[in-house]
Amino acid sequence: MGIFGFLILGLAVGCIARMIVPGRIGKGWLPALVCGVIGALVGGFLSSLIFKVGLGSFWNPGTWIIAIIGSVIVLFIWGKIHKPAN
User: Fold this and answer.
1) 70 is in which domain, residue-wise?
2) CA–CA separation, 67 vs 47, rounded Å?
3) Which of these, 35, 34, 53, 32, lies nearest to 44 by C-alpha position?
4) Within a domain: 59
5) Cα–Cα dist 55/40, whole Å
6) Is the Cβ–Cβ distance between 78 and 25 less than 8 Å?
7) 38, 47, 66, 76 — which has fewest CB within 10 A?
8) Mean pLDDT highest for which of 10-14, 23-27, 82-86?
9) Cβ neighbours for 39, distance < 8 A, ≥ 6 positions apart
10) How many CA atoms lie within 13 A of 66 on its CB side?
11) 26 in Cβ contact with 83 (< 8 Å)
């Protein structure tokens, strides 16, 4: 997968993860992109450690599932570390 495909994957996965994880986490496409890219990296790293399976091609459903799970993990940790002021 090229860098452009990875960025598109990160943007889509970041948006999906923000719909799954409740809370007030940055709005807009840039925070979703950053969350998705970091989440895809985290998900790929964890899946390669645990299952010996990393990120595949752009159209591989396993790639999307791994990236979504990684993004949800990143958002959950971010929500626990960074509590918004009320």
Assistant:
1) 3-81
2) 10
3) 53
4) yes
5) 8
6) yes
7) 76
8) 10-14
9) 10, 13, 14, 17, 67, 68, 69, 70, 71, 72, 73, 74, 75
10) 24
11) no
Paired tokens of 65: 């599932």
Between the CA of residue 4 and those of 8, 33, 78, 79, what are the distances in Å? 6, 12, 25, 28
CB neighbourhood size of 75 (10 A): 23
- Please tell me the total count of domains within the chain: 1
Tokens representing 59 are 């159209």
pTM score, whole prediction? 0.87
User: Could you report the per-residue pLDDT of 36-58, keeping only the tens digit for each?
Assistant: 999 999 998 999 999 887 778 88
Q: 14-40 in b/e burial notation, b at 16+ Cβ within 10 A?
A: bebbbeebeeebeeeeeebbebbbbbb
Q: Which residue has the tokens 């990684």?
A: 70
